[in-house]
Amino acid sequence: xDSEVDEVVxxxxxxxxxxxxxxxxxxxxxxxxxxxxxxxxxxxTALLDCGVKSRHVQVQKCAAELLLSLLEKxxxxxxAGTAGAGRLAHTAGTLALDRHKDTRHYGQEMVxxxxxxxxxxxxxxxTVRTHDL
Length: 133
Fold this sequence. Notes:
It comes from Tychaedon coryphoeus (Karoo scrub-robin). By secondary structure, this protein is mostly helical.
């Protein structure tokens, strides 16, 4: 499944756009199951590439929620040792300032988790402007 993650995420996130609520719920649940069953690095990369960059509010919200669950799953200390740690920290800072309240909430929760660990705090200081922190 790891080799197909990018395409699966792209297709499922596309289903979130202008869909009925029950389709949005099913797509979100499907992505949650996928995130649980692939490597965290692949899931993070796919969500950062396809979800967070989207202009659609529902897609961004779903991606932010899943990134938060991934961060909770792998932990900040594990994250600090990965290659995409800076990118995720920067994205968390960006999401924390999002105009949509749900997306902003998930971003703020990620920032709080990062700030509670020395490695995460250093990542945020390196990737997010001081003014935004």
